[in-house]
Amino acid sequence: MLPTGRYFDVVTVDQRIGIETFDQLLRRGLPFGPTVLDHQARRVGFFLGSQSQETFVHYLGREDGSPPAYRYLSRGSVVVVPGPMPLRGDRYEWLRAPTRRPMANPLRPVALATMLVASAELLARVDRYGERYPSAADLVLSLIEGDATDAG
Fold this sequence. Notes:
By secondary structure, the protein is α+β, with helices and mostly antiparallel strands.
């Protein structure tokens, strides 16, 4: 266990949103730090520089969409991290392990806030699509019916 708030803070989110956010940050080349996955709690933790909460919350509020539920761990909290030798079946896993003491990057909380909201919106849209078209057959049927109506 490591105490948060002195050298780093951690933002944790639901695993589904966390994995999507991690993927978006990685694919877009945006700045972000170590990221940990808790398999049992089904949560992802993003490490930020200490005292990033004000910036993170500010930019989260500037986004058009609704932010997902999150926990901000700072002074007075602790976080469990994976050990140095990953073992099969471990509860904790690094998605992006720390390589050295991270350099302060003021854009990390901005990028994380932006991608958390974007990822939540993307997944909400995917869910709505899944409700409308629960199977590939439903999608094809709607396309066929749409063409028949358009031609008529």
